[in-house]
Specification:
The chain is of the alpha/beta class. It has nine helices and six strands. Strands 3-2-1-4-5-6 form a six-stranded mixed β-sheet, sandwiched between helices. The longest helix is centred in the first third of the chain and has 12 residues, at 2-13.
Length: 204
Amino acid sequence: MITILFQFFLYFNNYDKINGMNVYDFDGTIYKGDSNLDFYLHCVRKYPRLLSLIPIQLLRFIASLPSGDRTTLKQVLYYYLPRVPDILSEVDLFWQTHGTKIYPWYLAQKREDDVIISASPRFILEPICKGLGVSLIASEVDPATGKCIAKNCSGRNKPERILEFYKDCVVDEFYSDSNNDLPMARMARRAYKVRRGVVGEWRL
């Protein structure tokens, strides 16, 4: 027990000296817009028949409202995914036209050990994050079925997911455009709010 307490003392005594990671939200933060919505619109333009699903999606959305569960509500949107042929190839095509929407301010300060954490589906963000050479933590959605495999990666779930992947990590800086990310902001040494591509200090 004494050994464990001593290790904790050393860790917190040297906390400010530990080199930590920088963590970024994706949509509206380093990406201009909402990639989840943009991908849906990309698919609708190519496959207009997806519009016929809207009445079903609306009914399911209304039925899911009482639960207030973000994962359930998001899954309503993903109802269209199984109707898109070769969905992963479509994601690659999407980023050929939307990869330019990454904000220049982020590209100028990007580091190899950056972590992107997002509520958008991992299969949508994976290609762009690989291209940027950064790590990704995002919502787990099966592109073949549109089913959520785990809880939506948002709000209080984001710090939990970070600690799943990086035990005992130190977050130097966190960037987001949303107050929903307050739990992540409080986890970081410094937090920054992004508004329309402009970065400012996030006063917690």
